[in-house]
């Protein structure tokens, strides 16, 4: 049975433009202001004996955004999450939550952070609704209607009365997300939330994530799945062996990998490259003799201008094709030469790496 998710969940915008949940059940601390840096790490480092799991990591996650924390297996994502939640003591560096250093008093984590770091434990013989009620009670109670609203938000209304043990993996994971929202956290941390789910289950989870940000929360999504991060996140940091190797908006990262392929007769490749290198918006031109193609570093929508410049010199392109690198291409490039475990993850889709080789960050 397909589960349908509510459209924009229960979001309303207050007079001050501050996004709040309908029937606001705001915790004592209230929601962060839009754009506020909810989580900051500075020089965050963790060593386990000889292994440096995380090294010098500076992160900043803001209210209203989904921040992607992307890296292959063993890159240090879960270790970082553990330090942010106060479960793992950093070797050095700092964590700041809601503008305050995370020190001996970890109560801010319980009050204002919701996290799924592994599939949460629920009572198998209780319904999804009763499981949430039990957790709500353990958390000191939540306002009336909260449980049902959260069940609706994660698309579980229809099955809310069914026993937890009869739920699919995807439903269990969605119940887990609902449970993290019971305390109306300003920061939600999801570590590999679609692990083990089939494509439909993954899609259901991914539909929920951006809504959490639209409600004004900051969302940190740790994942080794490129397309997950590409489709769900606003900004992304790519980590490898504990270090940040790339960061920026997903759009800007993808845009950086844009190029146009121009097919020309063999004899026209060199003169064609010469012509195109003279255009102001062309960053670089590589000649691929074997494919009889010029790879032109230029915005994807400027193909017609390339065509005009070539034709002006009596050179006629057989094909002009805009290409966009996916975040996956960038990720593959950045993790090139990594450990065997990492490479196994980066296994698929090696299509266009040659174009970008040599431009990788160290
Ligand atoms: N308690 C520990 N003791 C020793 N080494 C550890 C410990 N926890 C993590 N590590 C090591 O630290 C590194 C980072 O692990 P971490 O679990 O943070 O990676 P990850 O990015 O979450 O990977 P995955 O995508 O597989 O979840 C790995 O080399 C791991 O083996
Ligand atoms: Mg992990």
Automatic annotation (TrEMBL):
What does the similarity note say?
Answer: Belongs to the ABC transporter superfamily.
What does the record give under GO molecular function?
ATP binding; ATP hydrolysis activity
Highest rank taxon of the organism: Bacteria
* Species of the source: uncultured Thermomicrobiales bacterium
Where are stretches of biased composition, namely Basic residues?
A: 350-362
One matching Pfam family: ABC_tran
**This chain belongs to which protein, by name?**
Efflux ABC transporter, ATP-binding protein
PROSITE patterns assigned: ABC_TRANSPORTER_1 (PS00211), ABC_TRANSPORTER_2 (PS50893)
Q: Which UniProt keywords apply?
A: ATP-binding, Nucleotide-binding, Transport
- Which intervals of the chain are annotated as region Disordered? 1-34, 342-362
Q: Which residues are in the ABC transporter domain?
A: 39-266
Q: Which SMART domains match?
A: AAA
Compositional bias (Polar residues): 1-13
